């Protein structure tokens, strides 16, 4: 494929797997400032500071400890414990009550890919984190990964919800199956984050064109808004944000019965505008030692971000 946008995306994704480049970028003294736009720091203390700034500016927060795809049980345990320590610290800082700051989890980081017992291990680790969240008075949302994990993740979700009905799910509008998943999950008390989807998926399971993914997003959004659950609109797309606002009005939803969500550092003025309009606006804040892969995926999604990043490297 000689489409320049596709080539650039592939180059950046290649960079994300290049350990030498990773070393250079991580060690460059400048990187810290530049990385900070999209990543909420490396340590608990740093991410607490970032979350506190967001809360002070009337935004809600969900924090993701970066550590995808582990095939090492010790790493999965480390990720679990990091979440528990983080939730305790957030609770002590008074930031969790009522779900002001919650956490997002990737089951692959909790051991889902560890052979035949992987799903059970991830479920057990997620249980520990949900209990810590319950103690802190906040919620947990399960991120959604590639389509081979969708059924497994929804089954973990069902298990967790038996004890903690506030556990949220993510659905991706690029998958053909998602309209039906939205119908299944549009019931009372069900928190569903709708996003477009970020993995490279085959035509057999997913829409390929932006137009089709966007149309599917609107169909899914309509189902969620007209349902009894709590829709979370995770998109930076101005058209979809506007459509969500109209659909919420049509469904006569109050401002506290749904929320908008965006990633840290992306459209911050729009985040503030939505928050000032009285809407609930939540910012997804990734943090931890494994920030490099996350950052490179964001760059691949939108090369304009790469220009920003490289400018920072060159001029600081
Ligand atoms: P898209 O990338 O199509 O952009 C549409 C428009 O938005 C652009 O034309 C532009 O106007 C505006 N825009 C986008 N990026 C911008 C930028 N950097 N600066 C300015 N304007 C910009 N995915 C997944 O597979 N599983 C998951 O669990 C999650 N979780 C998740 C949580 C949250 C809170 C968010 C916001 C996103 C996710 N995602 C995700 C990622 C999601 O699937 C998707 O890849 C990105 O959000 C990008 O899609 P958009 O809807 O923003 O639109």
From TrEMBL:
EC number, as in UniProt: 1.5.5.2
Name listed for the protein in its UniProt record: proline dehydrogenase
Entries under InterPro entries matching the protein: FAD-linked_oxidoreductase-like (IPR029041), PRODH_bac_arc (IPR008219), Proline_DH_dom (IPR002872), Proline_oxidase (IPR015659)
Occurrences of domain Proline dehydrogenase (ranges): 53-308
Biological processes, Gene Ontology terms: L-proline catabolic process to L-glutamate
Species this protein is from: Ornithinimicrobium tianjinense
Molecular function via GO: nucleotide binding; proline dehydrogenase activity
Catalytic reaction equation(s): L-proline + a quinone = (S)-1-pyrroline-5-carboxylate + a quinol + H(+)
KW Flavoprotein (keyword) present: yes
């Amino acid at each position: 494929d000689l489409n320049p946008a596709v080539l650039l995306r592939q180059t950046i994704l290649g960079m994300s797997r290049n350990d030498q480049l990773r070393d250079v970028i991580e060690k460059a003294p400048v990187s810290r400032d530049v990385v900070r736009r999209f990543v909420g720091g490396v340590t608990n203390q740093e991410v607490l500071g970032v979350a506190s700034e967001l809360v002070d500016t009337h935004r809600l927060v969900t924090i993701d400890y970066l550590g995808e795809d582990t095939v090492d049980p010790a790493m999965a345990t480390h990720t679990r414990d990091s979440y528990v320590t983080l939730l305790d610290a957030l609770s002590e800082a008074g930031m969790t009550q009522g779900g002001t700051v919650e956490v997002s989890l990737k089951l692959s980081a909790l051991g889902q890919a560890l052979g035949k017992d992987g799903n059970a291990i991830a479920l057990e680790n997620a249980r520990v984190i949900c209990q810590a969240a319950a103690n802190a008075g906040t919620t947990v949302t399960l991120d959604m990964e590639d389509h081979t994990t969708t059924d497994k993740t929804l089954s973990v979700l069902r298990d967790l919800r038996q004890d903690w009905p506030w556990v949220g799910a993510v659905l991706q509008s690029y998958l053909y199956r998602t309209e039906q998943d939205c119908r299944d999950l549009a019931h009372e008390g069900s928190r569903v984050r709708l996003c477009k989807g970020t993995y490279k998926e085959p035509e057999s399971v997913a829409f390929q064109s932006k137009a089709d993914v966007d149309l599917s997003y609107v169909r899914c959004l309509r189902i969620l808004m007209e349902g009894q659950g709590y829709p979370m609109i995770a998109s930076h797309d101005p058209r979809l944000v506007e459509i969500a606002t109209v659909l919420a009005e049509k469904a006569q939803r109050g401002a506290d019965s749904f929320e908008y969500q965006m990633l840290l550092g992306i459209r911050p003025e729009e985040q503030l505008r939505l928050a000032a309009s009285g809407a609930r606006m939540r910012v997804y804040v990734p943090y931890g030692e494994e920030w490099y892969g996350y950052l490179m995926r964001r760059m691949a999604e939108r090369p304009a971000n790469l220009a920003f990043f490289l400018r920072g490297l060159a001029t600081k």
